[in-house]
Structure formats: structure tokens, C-alpha cells
# Entry
Amino acid sequence: MSGHDHSHESENLPPLEGAGGPALENLVLEEAIRELLIEKEVIEAREVERLLEVLQTRRPALGARLVTRIWTDPDFRKLALENGKAAAELELGINLVEAPEIIFLENTPKRHHLVVCTLCSCYPTYIMGPSPTWYRSKAFRARVVKEPRAVLAEFNTDLPEDVEIRVVDSTAEVRYLVVPVRPGGSEGMNREALARLVNRDSMIGAALADSP
Amino acid sequence: MEGRYQVGERVVVRSDTPKGYCRTPFYLRGRPGVVTGQLGPFLDPEKMGYGLPGLPKRFLYTVRFGQSGLWSDYDGPAGDTLIADIFEHWLDPGE
Amino acid sequence: MRSTHDLGGAPWDEMLDLEVNDVTPFARRVTALVEILRHPSKQVFVTDELRRAIESLPKNDYLTLTYYEKWIRAVKALVVEKGVLSQEEIDARVEEILRRREADKTG
# Structure
């Protein structure tokens, strides 16, 4: 063994072909930059390890918890609509001081929000984890602002003409989380059961919450 | 810092074509909209993008656009809309 | 003129690929690196600089690289721009790692 950190070796080999994996040159570029930054003490290896663990904790389940509490707790809903970040910190017990602002967008039977970031791919990663690959695709970013209903149809999300589709282009400092309409038949369900109905795509606005 | 535009006011996005980094999408430039929210002052991304301190801060708004005002061939109901966050120095008063 | 990255409303007749998933271990490592470097305790760069660097990639790279590949290319540009690492030492280390991998494979 050389003196180099091989702890991620199994992950580094081989690049995934045609499955969204990086080319070898870019895989190795990350390794090279990381090694050099550690050697020069700009960063520490354990910082990277720690952050990789933190990243694993960011999942759509966090967003789903927020949605279900908004559905079921009027005081929390009020706080969430006034100060999204404070509400998220309260419910999830996490520190979002480094995170951008969060705004919750409530869908209603007459208005459906659908979020995109046409300029890059802004997404509420702190409470949702990494965005789905399609969200970052050029096709989604190019098309959804102009033909939202055609894009929604690809998710099998068909909304009547009298529902206003409101596309939300997340252009600047705010990250948006959609609160889907609470599905019929979910009355009396507890928060844990409700949270299982809140799929990731429903919090982007590409889908509806699941039916019980 | 106070915002120049109030909620409900009509605005038009400027048609500038800056050479460098900015956060105003091309498809919204020159388009009329209505302010629906005041998000407050933020460090100026156009300066932050180049490692500068981002001052003076810029006031940020949520602006709503009618889809039929964005695309002449919009294929959907007249009530469909789009919102985006636009900085004050990118907005002019609307009619 | 519309910039390459400024995609909203650009003519695009391709359907969405809802199956592909690029959130690989590589993607997580790149994300971790970016979050560490832009944390206020280090602030090697800020988010707007990362975006600017991504938008400044050659057009063909912007259109063909995957999202996290663009990120690592932009990180490279920024650490060089900031004088944290030099282009030469990065290139040399890339070569070294490639040789190491080759040796691991054959040895």
C-alpha cells in the first residue's frame, strides 16, 4: 500500500458507463484536488468524511415531515408560511444558518406550484437531499417554464384547465418547497402515516401526494 | 433598506444584456409582471460572483408573470402563471 | 443573446429522462468538497462564484458534462484562480493517480 488514502477505492472504480456516472478524467480530477487540498491543509480528510455522513442525513423524508406538520398543526403552518427556515429548524432540530432562505408554497385545489431553476439547479437540498437528476436536466430547465402541462404529463400528473399552474423559477436567494394538497381519505391518519404519502416529486410540484 | 416597489405594483423586467454573471433569466427580460412579494435586501450576486463583497445590497422581489404574456404561443389556460425572484436594479415601473 | 446556461424557454423537444440517477459516490464527494470550500470558516469561494465558474466553462463542456462533472471542473478553475492550487500541480497529480490506478490494475 502506498501512503495515499485508498478508503474510497472501491467507490472510485470503475466509472459508471452511461448511467449518469462521470468520465474517468473527472473522477480522477476530484481525487487529485481533494488529495492536494488535504496535503496543503486547506481541508482535512475527516472534514470530508464528516460531511459525507451529513449528506446522507438529508433526505426527502425531512421535507415530508415538514409538509405533514403543516397539514396538521395550524400554528406550525402559520410559522412555516411566515418564516420557512425557522419552521424547518424547529421541526427538524437542525441548524440551517448556512442554508438559503426557505419558502413553502401551498398547493390548493385551484393552484398548483411547480418548481424549477432555469439558470443552474437551485433546490432545497438541506431539507430534501440532492435533487433528482431530471430536475437538473437541460430538458426540464428549458421546457418547464414554457410548457408546464406537457412536462407534468410526463409524470402522469394531469390537472384540469381551471387549476392555475404556477411555475416557480428559483432564480436567486430562495429555495422553494411545495406543500402538496392533502389527499382525500387521509383524515385521521397520524403524521408518520401521512409522511409516507408525501413523495419527493410532490414537494417539487411534479406530482401529487399519494392517495392512502 | 426599503424596497422601491410595493406588493401589487406593476413592473417590467429590464432588457439589459450584461456580459457577466447575473440572476435574471433571459426569457423574462422585457416582460411585464406584478410584484407579489418583498423578499428584502440581499448581497448583490453580480458582485459576489467575482469574489467581491456584494455591496451595496440589492432589494429582491417575487414577481408574477402571466404565461400568455411570456409566450405568444403558450399552449395552456389563460390563468397559468410563473413567478421568479428579481432584483430591484432589474426592474422598471410598469404601466 | 441567450447564454448557454440560461435555458428557460430554449427550444428543446427532448422528453425528460426520469430513470437516470447521477447521485453517485462521486457526486457526493464533489458536493462535500464544495460545501467545505464555501463554508464561511474557509470561504475559498462563494456559491455565486461557483455558478459563475460553471457558466464560464466552454460551451461544449457545459452541454455535455454531467452536473457534478461541471462542479468539479468549476472547483478546479476556482482553486487555480484563487491561487490555492496551481494548474500544473493539479495536472501532475491527475497523471500520478492515473499511473497509480494502472499499476493497481496490472500489479
Q: What stands out?
A: The mean pLDDT of chain C is 95. Chain C has one domain: 25-106. Helices of chain C lie at 25-38, 47-55, 59-64, 67-81, 87-106.
